[in-house]
Amino acid sequence: QVQLVESGGGLVQAGNSLRLSCVGSKMTFNTYTMGWFRQTPGRERDFVAVIGRNGRTNSADSVKGRFTITRDKRKNTVYLQMNSLQPEDTAVYYCTATRNDESLISDRFFAYWGQGTQVTVSS
Fold first, then answer.
1. Of 27, 39, 59, 69, which sits 20 to 30 A from 82 (CA to CA)?
2. CA distance 65 to 82
3. 3-class DSSP state for residue 45?
């Protein structure tokens, strides 16, 4: 069973940066599209960013120009570099994996999920 473990969340002031990491195990990492979603209490998970097997990326309009998703195939790790963080970015961030390609960005297309990491941005 695929396992995904996130790290790097925390409390930061608005305008600062964080980098989230997600290590995948029990999987052939190169064959999966990897993504990040986020969720706040009482709301559904929202798409943040995705990176395909070939490195193609896509991100939500709300984070374009501020967040960057990358992957390191040697380390089985996907990263989310988050710059210029704002209070509205506060959420639990989830790493996810799918065999589908990066064009499918609804959470129902992603089969595997990490436990989540909390990001809190203070104003």
1. 27
2. 10
3. coil
